[in-house]
Amino acid sequence: MYSVTCRLLPGRLGLCVFKPLHKIAIIKQILKVFVHHYRPGNGEWLQIRHFHLPKCQYVTKVDKGLYQRAKPKAEPSSAPFPEKPPLINDVVVRSVQQVPTITPYPSSLHEDEEQMPGKAGMEEVADDKGTSQDNRKGKQWNEVKVQLADLPGIYAKLSKIKLTALVATTATAGFAMAPVPFDLSCFLLATLGTGLASCAANSINQFFEVPFDSNMNRTKNRPLVRGQISPLHAVSFAAACSVPGIAVLALGINPLTGALGAFNIFLYTCCYTPMKRLSILNTWVGSVVGAIPPVMGWTAATGSISAGALLLGGILYSWQFPHFNALSWNLREDYSRGGYRMMSVTHPALCKRVAFRHCFGLIGLSTLCSVFDVTTWTFPLISLPINLYITYLGYRFYRDSSRSSARKLFFCSLWHLPMLLLLMLTCKKSIAGSESTIHHKVQTEMQV
Question: pTM for the full model?
Answer without folding.
Answer: 0.65
